[in-house]
Write a structure and sequence with these properties.
rod-shaped; 3-stranded mixed beta sheet; 3 strands; 5 helices; signal; alpha+beta; about 160 residues; single chain; about 10% strand
Length: about 160
Amino acid sequence: MNKDYIKQWVKLMMLGCVLLMAGAGNAAAAPNGVMSASMHIVSAADESLDDKQAEIDDYVAGAGQEELSREGFTVTHTVAAGDKVEVGITPYNEEHANFLYEKFGRDQVQVVEGEQAILYGANTAEADVVAAEEAGMNLWIWIGAAVVIVAGGLVLVRRKLFSRS
């Protein structure tokens, strides 16, 4: 009876080791930014906001650049937020906001204070890459530790199973 009990434990440990390896392989193969698949239903309101944002972007990047410079402000961003297109400007004041409201209307546009984007140097990008590499190595260290622990347990069980008394 004792030997049957030990054999069952050995089988259970081996099954656990196999499942651990299979799970670790799947975890290592998964991309970092995994998102679940979902359906996005595009409504007519979304399309009209996209059209309005495209209209504003075309103006800001094209013919309106000179006009905006003469007015003394720049557009920092455009984004569809809620039921309006948010337009960030710097410096923000009511005259500049009214200029854009006259151009594009108030029903789908909201003018807010914008902030200029700050570009970081190459060192910041390199630090992100190094951190990602270290995180990947950390996973393999944990996998290796788990394998050593499971193998050690199997060796101990085997010694007890086949020990000569």
